[in-house]
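Everyone, describe these C-alpha coordinates:
***
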Amino acid sequence: MMKKLISIILAAVLMAGVAGCGTKTQESGKGDTVKWYLFSNPGNVNEKDIFAEAQRMAKEKTGVDLEIIPIESGDYESKMQILTASNEPFDIMFTSNWLNNYYMNVSKNAILPLDDYLKDYPELYNSMPEYFWDSMKVKGKIYAVPNQQIVARGPFFAIPEQNMELLGFTDADFEGAGENYKTALAAVEKYLRAVKEKTGNYCNLNKIWNDGTQMFNIEEVVGSLLPGAIQLDNETDKYKLINQYESEEFKYYIKMRRKWVEEGLVMPSEETERDLDHVEDPTAIVPNITRGNCYKPNVLSELNRNSDYDWKIIFKCRPITTSGSVAATMNAISATSKNPEGALKIIQLVDTDAEFYNLLVYGLEGVNYTKTGENSIELNPDMPYTWTEWNVGNTFNKYNLPGEPDNFAEEVEKINDESFKSPLLGFSPDLDNVKVEVSACQSAVSEYLNLLDYGLVDVDSSYPEFIKKLKAAGCDKLISEVQRQVDEWVAQQ
Protein backbone atom coordinates (compact mmCIF):
# COMPACT_ATOMS: atom_id res chain seq x y z
CA MET A 1 0.00 0.00 0.00
CA MET A 2 2.81 2.40 0.94
CA LYS A 3 4.67 1.65 -2.32
CA LYS A 4 1.51 2.35 -4.30
CA LEU A 5 1.03 5.68 -2.48
CA ILE A 6 4.64 6.69 -3.14
CA SER A 7 4.21 5.81 -6.82
CA ILE A 8 1.14 8.03 -7.06
CA ILE A 9 2.97 10.93 -5.40
CA LEU A 10 5.98 10.53 -7.69
CA ALA A 11 3.73 10.46 -10.73
CA ALA A 12 2.03 13.67 -9.59
CA VAL A 13 5.39 15.37 -9.06
CA LEU A 14 6.57 14.31 -12.51
CA MET A 15 3.38 15.61 -14.12
CA ALA A 16 3.80 18.94 -12.32
CA GLY A 17 7.37 19.09 -13.61
CA VAL A 18 6.23 18.50 -17.16
CA ALA A 19 3.61 21.25 -16.83
CA GLY A 20 6.31 23.61 -15.60
CA CYS A 21 8.72 22.89 -18.45
CA GLY A 22 6.48 24.44 -21.08
CA THR A 23 8.42 23.65 -24.25
CA LYS A 24 6.60 23.13 -27.52
CA THR A 25 7.09 19.40 -27.17
CA GLN A 26 4.48 19.55 -24.42
CA GLU A 27 1.41 17.67 -25.63
CA SER A 28 -1.29 20.07 -26.80
CA GLY A 29 -4.95 19.11 -26.92
CA LYS A 30 -5.90 21.11 -30.00
CA GLY A 31 -9.61 20.63 -29.43
CA ASP A 32 -9.53 21.77 -25.82
CA THR A 33 -11.44 24.95 -24.93
CA VAL A 34 -9.15 27.87 -24.12
CA LYS A 35 -9.97 29.37 -20.72
CA TRP A 36 -9.10 33.06 -20.35
CA TYR A 37 -9.32 34.75 -16.94
CA LEU A 38 -10.10 38.45 -17.47
CA PHE A 39 -10.63 41.45 -15.22
CA SER A 40 -14.30 42.23 -14.70
CA ASN A 41 -16.34 45.18 -13.53
CA PRO A 42 -19.58 44.54 -11.60
CA GLY A 43 -21.21 47.44 -13.47
CA ASN A 44 -20.93 45.69 -16.82
CA VAL A 45 -24.60 44.81 -17.16
CA ASN A 46 -24.44 42.97 -20.50
CA GLU A 47 -21.05 41.34 -20.00
CA LYS A 48 -22.39 37.86 -20.75
CA ASP A 49 -23.69 38.97 -24.16
CA ILE A 50 -20.35 40.56 -25.00
CA PHE A 51 -18.39 37.48 -23.99
CA ALA A 52 -20.76 35.28 -25.97
CA GLU A 53 -20.09 37.38 -29.08
CA ALA A 54 -16.33 37.28 -28.37
CA GLN A 55 -16.49 33.49 -28.16
CA ARG A 56 -18.42 33.30 -31.44
CA MET A 57 -15.95 35.66 -33.15
CA ALA A 58 -12.92 33.78 -31.80
CA LYS A 59 -14.26 30.50 -33.15
CA GLU A 60 -14.94 32.07 -36.54
CA LYS A 61 -11.56 33.78 -36.85
CA THR A 62 -9.26 31.16 -35.27
CA GLY A 63 -11.19 27.90 -34.98
CA VAL A 64 -10.54 27.96 -31.22
CA ASP A 65 -13.27 27.38 -28.65
CA LEU A 66 -12.88 30.19 -26.12
CA GLU A 67 -14.29 30.51 -22.62
CA ILE A 68 -13.90 33.90 -20.94
CA ILE A 69 -14.03 33.74 -17.15
CA PRO A 70 -14.41 37.15 -15.48
CA ILE A 71 -12.83 37.98 -12.12
CA GLU A 72 -13.48 41.29 -10.39
CA SER A 73 -10.32 43.37 -10.63
CA GLY A 74 -9.89 43.68 -6.86
CA ASP A 75 -9.92 39.90 -6.48
CA TYR A 76 -7.66 39.09 -9.43
CA GLU A 77 -4.39 38.73 -7.54
CA SER A 78 -5.72 36.37 -4.87
CA LYS A 79 -7.77 34.27 -7.31
CA MET A 80 -4.87 33.78 -9.71
CA GLN A 81 -2.52 32.81 -6.88
CA ILE A 82 -5.00 30.16 -5.76
CA LEU A 83 -5.41 28.85 -9.31
CA THR A 84 -1.68 28.59 -9.99
CA ALA A 85 -0.93 27.06 -6.58
CA SER A 86 -3.56 24.37 -7.11
CA ASN A 87 -2.37 23.52 -10.66
CA GLU A 88 -5.87 24.23 -11.95
CA PRO A 89 -5.96 23.72 -15.75
CA PHE A 90 -6.56 27.00 -17.60
CA ASP A 91 -4.86 28.92 -20.38
CA ILE A 92 -4.53 32.73 -20.38
CA MET A 93 -3.96 35.15 -17.52
CA PHE A 94 -2.89 38.73 -17.00
CA THR A 95 0.52 39.15 -15.40
CA SER A 96 2.74 42.14 -14.70
CA ASN A 97 5.37 43.52 -12.37
CA TRP A 98 2.68 45.01 -10.09
CA LEU A 99 -0.17 42.47 -10.19
CA ASN A 100 0.08 38.67 -10.38
CA ASN A 101 3.85 39.14 -10.39
CA TYR A 102 5.45 38.06 -13.65
CA TYR A 103 8.87 37.26 -12.22
CA MET A 104 7.41 35.15 -9.44
CA ASN A 105 5.20 33.30 -11.94
CA VAL A 106 8.33 32.47 -13.93
CA SER A 107 10.15 31.42 -10.79
CA LYS A 108 7.29 29.13 -9.75
CA ASN A 109 7.08 27.57 -13.24
CA ALA A 110 3.49 28.81 -13.37
CA ILE A 111 3.69 30.09 -16.97
CA LEU A 112 5.11 28.71 -20.21
CA PRO A 113 8.17 29.95 -22.09
CA LEU A 114 6.87 31.04 -25.48
CA ASP A 115 9.96 31.26 -27.68
CA ASP A 116 9.32 28.03 -29.60
CA TYR A 117 5.65 28.90 -30.10
CA LEU A 118 6.26 32.49 -31.23
CA LYS A 119 8.21 31.26 -34.28
CA ASP A 120 4.86 30.15 -35.71
CA TYR A 121 3.20 33.52 -35.04
CA PRO A 122 5.22 36.09 -37.02
CA GLU A 123 2.23 38.48 -37.26
CA LEU A 124 2.14 38.71 -33.47
CA TYR A 125 5.90 38.86 -33.04
CA ASN A 126 6.40 41.55 -35.68
CA SER A 127 3.57 43.72 -34.35
CA MET A 128 5.82 45.37 -31.75
CA PRO A 129 9.41 46.61 -31.37
CA GLU A 130 12.17 44.16 -30.50
CA TYR A 131 12.84 45.86 -27.16
CA PHE A 132 9.35 44.88 -26.03
CA TRP A 133 10.27 41.22 -26.41
CA ASP A 134 13.73 41.76 -24.88
CA SER A 135 12.04 43.23 -21.81
CA MET A 136 10.06 40.01 -21.35
CA LYS A 137 13.10 37.76 -21.14
CA VAL A 138 13.91 35.96 -17.93
CA LYS A 139 16.80 33.50 -18.08
CA GLY A 140 16.94 34.26 -21.80
CA LYS A 141 13.35 33.21 -22.49
CA ILE A 142 10.08 35.02 -23.20
CA TYR A 143 7.26 34.04 -20.84
CA ALA A 144 4.53 36.54 -21.76
CA VAL A 145 3.17 38.71 -24.56
CA PRO A 146 3.21 42.44 -23.74
CA ASN A 147 0.05 44.46 -24.35
CA GLN A 148 1.36 47.14 -26.66
CA GLN A 149 0.61 50.57 -25.20
CA ILE A 150 2.31 53.63 -23.79
CA VAL A 151 5.45 52.28 -22.12
CA ALA A 152 7.22 55.60 -21.65
CA ARG A 153 6.09 56.43 -18.13
CA GLY A 154 5.93 60.16 -17.48
CA PRO A 155 4.14 61.00 -14.21
CA PHE A 156 1.99 64.14 -14.27
CA PHE A 157 -0.20 66.22 -11.97
CA ALA A 158 -3.61 67.59 -12.94
CA ILE A 159 -6.10 69.89 -11.23
CA PRO A 160 -9.66 71.08 -12.02
CA GLU A 161 -9.15 73.61 -14.80
CA GLN A 162 -11.25 76.37 -13.23
CA ASN A 163 -9.03 76.30 -10.14
CA MET A 164 -6.24 77.97 -12.10
CA GLU A 165 -8.15 81.26 -12.39
CA LEU A 166 -10.04 80.96 -9.11
CA LEU A 167 -6.79 80.49 -7.20
CA GLY A 168 -4.90 83.11 -9.20
CA PHE A 169 -2.47 80.73 -10.88
CA THR A 170 -0.97 80.99 -14.35
CA ASP A 171 1.08 78.47 -16.30
CA ALA A 172 4.22 80.32 -15.18
CA ASP A 173 3.56 79.26 -11.58
CA PHE A 174 4.25 75.63 -12.50
CA GLU A 175 6.87 76.09 -15.21
CA GLY A 176 9.80 73.72 -14.75
CA ALA A 177 8.12 71.93 -11.84
CA GLY A 178 8.67 68.52 -13.42
CA GLU A 179 12.45 68.86 -13.66
CA ASN A 180 13.10 66.98 -10.41
CA TYR A 181 11.19 65.53 -7.49
CA LYS A 182 11.87 68.43 -5.12
CA THR A 183 10.53 71.08 -7.52
CA ALA A 184 7.58 68.78 -8.29
CA LEU A 185 6.65 68.33 -4.63
CA ALA A 186 7.12 72.06 -4.00
CA ALA A 187 4.69 72.87 -6.82
CA VAL A 188 2.13 70.43 -5.39
CA GLU A 189 2.49 72.00 -1.95
CA LYS A 190 2.00 75.49 -3.42
CA TYR A 191 -1.31 74.36 -4.89
CA LEU A 192 -2.43 72.55 -1.71
CA ARG A 193 -1.78 75.66 0.39
CA ALA A 194 -3.71 77.88 -2.05
CA VAL A 195 -6.76 75.58 -1.84
CA LYS A 196 -6.57 75.49 1.96
CA GLU A 197 -6.24 79.30 2.19
CA LYS A 198 -9.21 79.96 -0.13
CA THR A 199 -11.61 77.22 0.99
CA GLY A 200 -10.45 75.90 4.36
CA ASN A 201 -10.61 72.41 2.81
CA TYR A 202 -8.00 69.72 2.43
CA CYS A 203 -7.44 68.23 -1.03
CA ASN A 204 -7.98 64.74 -2.30
CA LEU A 205 -4.57 63.49 -3.39
CA ASN A 206 -3.78 59.93 -4.38
CA LYS A 207 -0.52 58.15 -3.64
CA ILE A 208 2.60 59.60 -5.27
CA TRP A 209 5.31 56.99 -4.69
CA ASN A 210 3.39 53.86 -5.61
CA ASP A 211 3.75 53.43 -9.38
CA GLY A 212 5.26 56.90 -9.65
CA THR A 213 8.93 56.33 -8.85
CA GLN A 214 9.95 57.68 -12.28
CA MET A 215 9.19 61.13 -10.86
CA PHE A 216 12.01 60.46 -8.41
CA ASN A 217 14.30 59.14 -11.20
CA ILE A 218 14.14 55.71 -9.63
CA GLU A 219 13.53 52.49 -11.53
CA GLU A 220 12.28 49.51 -9.57
CA VAL A 221 14.20 46.58 -11.05
CA VAL A 222 12.98 43.59 -9.03
CA GLY A 223 9.30 44.37 -9.52
CA SER A 224 6.85 47.04 -8.50
CA LEU A 225 7.29 47.94 -4.81
CA LEU A 226 9.91 45.26 -4.12
CA PRO A 227 13.25 46.52 -2.78
CA GLY A 228 15.89 46.71 -5.49
CA ALA A 229 16.17 49.73 -7.78
CA ILE A 230 18.59 51.93 -9.69
CA GLN A 231 18.87 55.72 -9.64
CA LEU A 232 18.51 56.89 -13.23
CA ASP A 233 20.51 60.07 -12.64
CA ASN A 234 23.50 58.17 -11.18
CA GLU A 235 25.95 58.62 -14.05
CA THR A 236 28.96 57.37 -12.11
CA ASP A 237 27.45 53.99 -11.15
CA LYS A 238 24.29 53.62 -13.22
CA TYR A 239 24.00 49.85 -12.70
CA LYS A 240 24.24 49.93 -8.91
CA LEU A 241 21.17 48.62 -7.10
CA ILE A 242 19.88 50.30 -3.97
CA ASN A 243 17.04 49.75 -1.54
CA GLN A 244 14.76 52.55 -2.76
CA TYR A 245 13.08 52.66 0.64
CA GLU A 246 16.37 53.73 2.19
CA SER A 247 16.93 56.41 -0.47
CA GLU A 248 16.95 60.13 0.25
CA GLU A 249 14.17 60.50 -2.31
CA PHE A 250 11.79 58.21 -0.43
CA LYS A 251 12.60 59.71 2.98
CA TYR A 252 12.17 63.26 1.64
CA TYR A 253 8.77 62.42 0.17
CA ILE A 254 7.23 60.59 3.14
CA LYS A 255 8.28 63.38 5.52
CA MET A 256 6.70 65.97 3.24
CA ARG A 257 3.54 63.91 2.80
CA ARG A 258 3.22 63.50 6.57
CA LYS A 259 3.61 67.25 6.98
CA TRP A 260 0.77 67.84 4.51
CA VAL A 261 -1.49 65.58 6.56
CA GLU A 262 -0.55 67.21 9.86
CA GLU A 263 -1.20 70.69 8.42
CA GLY A 264 -4.58 69.68 7.00
CA LEU A 265 -3.56 70.07 3.36
CA VAL A 266 -4.49 66.54 2.27
CA MET A 267 -6.98 63.97 3.52
CA PRO A 268 -6.12 62.63 6.99
CA SER A 269 -7.06 59.03 6.14
CA GLU A 270 -7.93 56.92 3.12
CA GLU A 271 -11.53 56.78 4.35
CA THR A 272 -11.90 60.57 4.13
CA GLU A 273 -11.28 60.69 0.37
CA ARG A 274 -14.40 62.29 -1.11
CA ASP A 275 -16.13 61.85 -4.46
CA LEU A 276 -15.06 65.12 -6.05
CA ASP A 277 -15.61 64.07 -9.65
CA HIS A 278 -19.32 64.76 -9.19
CA VAL A 279 -19.93 68.07 -7.41
CA GLU A 280 -22.89 70.42 -6.94
CA ASP A 281 -21.11 73.44 -8.42
CA PRO A 282 -18.46 72.41 -10.95
CA THR A 283 -17.51 76.06 -11.51
CA ALA A 284 -16.37 76.61 -7.90
CA ILE A 285 -12.99 75.66 -6.43
CA VAL A 286 -12.88 71.88 -6.29
CA PRO A 287 -10.34 70.71 -3.65
CA ASN A 288 -8.85 68.03 -5.86
CA ILE A 289 -5.49 67.16 -7.44
CA THR A 290 -4.41 63.91 -9.03
CA ARG A 291 -1.10 62.30 -9.80
CA GLY A 292 -1.16 60.21 -12.95
CA ASN A 293 1.55 57.63 -13.51
CA CYS A 294 1.71 57.95 -17.28
CA TYR A 295 1.06 60.91 -19.57
CA LYS A 296 -0.46 59.96 -22.93
CA PRO A 297 -2.28 61.86 -25.69
CA ASN A 298 -5.77 61.00 -24.43
CA VAL A 299 -5.18 61.49 -20.72
CA LEU A 300 -7.24 64.70 -20.47
CA SER A 301 -10.20 63.21 -22.31
CA GLU A 302 -10.09 60.24 -19.90
CA LEU A 303 -10.11 62.56 -16.88
CA ASN A 304 -12.78 64.85 -18.33
CA ARG A 305 -15.03 61.95 -19.26
CA ASN A 306 -15.41 60.93 -15.62
CA SER A 307 -15.87 64.40 -14.07
CA ASP A 308 -18.37 67.24 -13.99
CA TYR A 309 -15.57 69.65 -14.92
CA ASP A 310 -12.53 69.78 -17.17
CA TRP A 311 -9.02 69.06 -15.94
CA LYS A 312 -5.71 70.78 -16.62
CA ILE A 313 -2.26 69.24 -16.45
CA ILE A 314 -0.14 71.64 -14.45
CA PHE A 315 3.15 69.83 -15.09
CA LYS A 316 4.59 66.51 -16.19
CA CYS A 317 7.90 64.70 -15.69
CA ARG A 318 10.13 63.27 -18.40
CA PRO A 319 8.92 60.00 -19.93
CA ILE A 320 11.10 57.00 -19.10
CA THR A 321 10.99 53.53 -20.65
CA THR A 322 12.13 50.58 -18.55
CA SER A 323 11.75 46.82 -18.70
CA GLY A 324 9.26 47.23 -15.89
CA SER A 325 7.10 49.68 -17.82
CA VAL A 326 6.94 47.24 -20.74
CA ALA A 327 6.20 44.41 -18.28
CA ALA A 328 3.37 46.38 -16.67
CA THR A 329 0.64 44.77 -18.81
CA MET A 330 1.00 41.29 -20.31
CA ASN A 331 -0.85 38.11 -21.18
CA ALA A 332 0.77 34.80 -20.29
CA ILE A 333 -0.09 31.15 -20.87
CA SER A 334 -0.48 28.95 -17.82
CA ALA A 335 1.85 25.99 -17.42
CA THR A 336 -1.29 23.92 -16.89
CA SER A 337 -2.67 24.83 -20.33
CA LYS A 338 -3.96 21.87 -22.33
CA ASN A 339 -3.98 23.94 -25.51
CA PRO A 340 -1.10 26.44 -25.54
CA GLU A 341 -1.20 26.83 -29.31
CA GLY A 342 -4.90 27.69 -29.15
CA ALA A 343 -4.16 30.15 -26.32
CA LEU A 344 -1.51 31.88 -28.41
CA LYS A 345 -3.96 32.11 -31.33
CA ILE A 346 -6.34 34.00 -29.02
CA ILE A 347 -3.54 36.30 -27.80
CA GLN A 348 -2.53 36.96 -31.41
CA LEU A 349 -6.17 37.71 -32.24
CA VAL A 350 -6.62 40.29 -29.48
CA ASP A 351 -3.27 41.88 -30.36
CA THR A 352 -3.70 42.09 -34.13
CA ASP A 353 -7.46 42.10 -34.84
CA ALA A 354 -9.08 45.48 -34.13
CA GLU A 355 -12.63 44.13 -34.34
CA PHE A 356 -12.05 41.51 -31.64
CA TYR A 357 -10.03 43.88 -29.43
CA ASN A 358 -12.64 46.65 -29.52
CA LEU A 359 -15.42 44.19 -28.76
CA LEU A 360 -13.69 43.29 -25.49
CA VAL A 361 -12.85 46.90 -24.66
CA TYR A 362 -16.04 48.74 -25.65
CA GLY A 363 -18.73 46.08 -25.99
CA LEU A 364 -21.42 45.76 -28.65
CA GLU A 365 -21.99 48.34 -31.36
CA GLY A 366 -25.48 49.83 -31.16
CA VAL A 367 -25.79 48.69 -27.54
CA ASN A 368 -22.78 49.92 -25.60
CA TYR A 369 -21.55 52.46 -28.14
CA THR A 370 -22.37 54.20 -31.41
CA LYS A 371 -19.85 54.70 -34.19
CA THR A 372 -19.29 58.33 -35.14
CA GLY A 373 -16.61 57.68 -37.76
CA GLU A 374 -14.52 54.92 -39.22
CA ASN A 375 -12.43 54.66 -36.06
CA SER A 376 -14.32 56.78 -33.53
CA ILE A 377 -17.22 56.06 -31.17
CA GLU A 378 -19.40 57.54 -28.46
CA LEU A 379 -20.27 55.44 -25.42
CA ASN A 380 -23.87 54.82 -24.45
CA PRO A 381 -24.27 56.11 -20.87
CA ASP A 382 -27.46 54.07 -20.45
CA MET A 383 -25.68 50.79 -21.08
CA PRO A 384 -22.40 51.01 -19.17
CA TYR A 385 -19.57 48.73 -20.14
CA THR A 386 -16.21 49.75 -18.78
CA TRP A 387 -12.95 47.98 -19.34
CA THR A 388 -9.34 48.95 -18.96
CA GLU A 389 -8.03 48.93 -22.51
CA TRP A 390 -4.49 48.10 -21.46
CA ASN A 391 -5.30 44.78 -19.76
CA VAL A 392 -6.70 43.14 -22.90
CA GLY A 393 -4.27 43.57 -25.78
CA ASN A 394 -2.79 46.05 -28.24
CA THR A 395 -4.15 49.52 -27.39
CA PHE A 396 -3.02 50.85 -30.78
CA ASN A 397 -6.09 49.10 -32.21
CA LYS A 398 -8.55 51.01 -30.03
CA TYR A 399 -11.46 53.11 -31.25
CA ASN A 400 -11.10 56.81 -30.44
CA LEU A 401 -13.45 58.33 -27.89
CA PRO A 402 -14.58 61.99 -27.99
CA GLY A 403 -11.64 64.32 -27.39
CA GLU A 404 -9.01 61.75 -28.34
CA PRO A 405 -6.69 62.48 -31.28
CA ASP A 406 -7.28 60.64 -34.54
CA ASN A 407 -3.60 59.74 -34.65
CA PHE A 408 -3.56 58.33 -31.11
CA ALA A 409 -1.37 55.32 -31.97
CA GLU A 410 1.20 57.45 -33.84
CA GLU A 411 1.39 59.92 -30.96
CA VAL A 412 1.95 57.14 -28.43
CA GLU A 413 4.62 55.51 -30.59
CA LYS A 414 6.39 58.87 -30.85
CA ILE A 415 6.41 59.30 -27.07
CA ASN A 416 7.70 55.75 -26.67
CA ASP A 417 10.45 56.23 -29.26
CA GLU A 418 11.65 59.59 -27.94
CA SER A 419 11.58 58.67 -24.25
CA PHE A 420 14.62 58.26 -22.01
CA LYS A 421 15.63 54.59 -22.12
CA SER A 422 16.80 52.91 -18.94
CA PRO A 423 20.35 51.51 -18.96
CA LEU A 424 18.75 48.22 -17.84
CA LEU A 425 16.19 48.08 -20.65
CA GLY A 426 16.02 44.40 -21.59
CA PHE A 427 17.06 43.09 -18.17
CA SER A 428 14.63 41.00 -16.12
CA PRO A 429 15.46 39.42 -12.75
CA ASP A 430 15.39 35.70 -12.04
CA LEU A 431 13.93 35.25 -8.55
CA ASP A 432 14.41 31.49 -8.27
CA ASN A 433 17.01 31.76 -5.51
CA VAL A 434 15.18 34.37 -3.43
CA LYS A 435 11.54 33.27 -3.41
CA VAL A 436 11.35 33.32 0.38
CA GLU A 437 12.85 36.80 0.57
CA VAL A 438 10.51 38.12 -2.13
CA SER A 439 7.46 36.86 -0.26
CA ALA A 440 8.65 38.26 3.07
CA CYS A 441 9.53 41.64 1.54
CA GLN A 442 6.13 41.81 -0.14
CA SER A 443 4.51 41.34 3.25
CA ALA A 444 6.57 44.12 4.83
CA VAL A 445 5.84 46.51 1.96
CA SER A 446 2.13 45.69 2.10
CA GLU A 447 2.07 46.45 5.81
CA TYR A 448 3.80 49.84 5.72
CA LEU A 449 4.01 51.46 2.28
CA ASN A 450 0.39 52.55 1.88
CA LEU A 451 0.42 54.20 5.29
CA LEU A 452 3.65 56.07 4.57
CA ASP A 453 2.59 56.96 1.02
CA TYR A 454 -0.61 58.57 2.30
CA GLY A 455 1.16 60.20 5.26
CA LEU A 456 -1.10 58.45 7.74
CA VAL A 457 1.52 57.43 10.32
CA ASP A 458 4.31 59.10 12.22
CA VAL A 459 7.45 58.84 10.11
CA ASP A 460 9.91 58.96 13.03
CA SER A 461 8.49 55.76 14.52
CA SER A 462 6.95 53.87 11.59
CA TYR A 463 9.73 54.32 9.05
CA PRO A 464 12.46 52.66 11.18
CA GLU A 465 10.05 49.79 11.88
CA PHE A 466 9.48 49.40 8.13
CA ILE A 467 13.20 49.26 7.35
CA LYS A 468 13.79 46.84 10.23
CA LYS A 469 11.11 44.51 8.84
CA LEU A 470 12.58 44.72 5.34
CA LYS A 471 16.00 43.80 6.71
CA ALA A 472 14.54 40.88 8.64
CA ALA A 473 12.72 39.81 5.48
CA GLY A 474 16.03 39.52 3.63
CA CYS A 475 15.93 42.61 1.42
CA ASP A 476 19.75 42.82 1.38
CA LYS A 477 20.04 39.24 0.15
CA LEU A 478 17.39 39.92 -2.50
CA ILE A 479 19.17 43.04 -3.76
CA SER A 480 22.57 41.31 -3.69
CA GLU A 481 21.26 38.41 -5.80
CA VAL A 482 19.72 40.71 -8.41
CA GLN A 483 22.88 42.87 -8.42
CA ARG A 484 24.88 39.76 -9.31
CA GLN A 485 22.52 39.11 -12.22
CA VAL A 486 22.72 42.73 -13.36
CA ASP A 487 26.54 42.58 -13.35
CA GLU A 488 26.45 39.42 -15.46
CA TRP A 489 23.93 40.96 -17.86
CA VAL A 490 26.04 44.13 -18.27
CA ALA A 491 29.15 42.05 -18.94
CA GLN A 492 27.36 40.28 -21.80
CA GLN A 493 26.19 43.46 -23.53
The first strand starts at residue 34 and ends at 40. The domain at 11-149+325-421 is CATH 3.40.190.10 (D-Maltodextrin-Binding Protein; domain 2). The chain is about 40% helix and 15% strand. Confidence is low (pLDDT under 50) at residues 1-22.
